[in-house]
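Here is a typical protein record:
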Amino acid sequence: MKVALLISGGVDSSVALRLLLEQGYDVTAYYLKIWLQDDFSFLGDCPWEEDVEFASRVCEQAGVELVTLPMQDEYWASVVSYTIAEIKEGRTPNPDMFCNRLIKFGEFSKRIGDKYDKIASGHYARVINDNGIYKLGVSPDPVKDQTYFLAYVTQQQLSNLLFPIGEYDKAQIRSIADRYDLANKKRKDSQGICFLGRISFRDFIKQHLGELKGDIINTDTGKKMGEHNGFYFYTIGQRSGLGLSGGPWYVVQKDTANNIIYISNKDMISEKERTEFLVTKFNWITGTPPLNDRLRVKIRHGAKSYNCRLNLQGETGRVTIDQPEKGIAAGQFAVFYEDDICIGGSVIM
């Protein structure tokens, strides 16, 4: 079986390569160059040469062909444009969601055509074939599990995917990397948003949206506490970067029309916690919504989830979680689970 493996230069996809070879697959590795277009390279050092160097050494050791595929135009047209638009509207985007659906398992699949039987990646997730219905299973490593970022894949895409490291935890992956003496066996995991490389998210926003002075208001007293350089630099629940004394202060609301940031201190923050929120723009991986309204939900990547009730009302839904949470923001993704299966995602309204 011929497999196209997406390789990043990191240890996870490199171990995925060796596991595929162990299992007898005929593998070609692809590095997708999706970093910032050359016009924006002045924002920071380009990290992709280092990634390709590691990927090349891993593939050379394994005797596997490595193809570097430029896909910046496709990435900018879909993922980056979405990110900028969401920020401008005061919402909290998650570009990694659409990188998986639209680029890695979308545009890339179109580019390679029918040359391969499967596409593989180094995601911590599992593909489960349940009598011809493909389901997305969680990884045994709750911290590294990446099903949250995969909640918008389609049934057709999932049927074409392999996640070779999905049955392992991070410690086991490091151990396998050491056994094969991979060039990147001690390389740290990448952090942050994939297309930004080493530049800061704030610098990226500033380059595209500029600075716009506005007031910082104490939501409990109505008093002006200071000024900011644009509401789009801040997210709900944010604590750092406000530059105010007498804190800690938290961002609890944004008035995008008037460019105002509302804050509250620690003693008041419990009043801003919520147990209910509305969602829309659903993606159900099997193609149909769940029959059971008692689910688990994550509102961000990580081990933490909530027991919840999802009340569907046409194109929207009301989510009620079992404990209050203060970091709920419009534009974030709420991803739903039944036991150890990720069933799909939605956008918080």
User: Anything to note?
Assistant: The two ends are 43 Å apart (CA to CA).
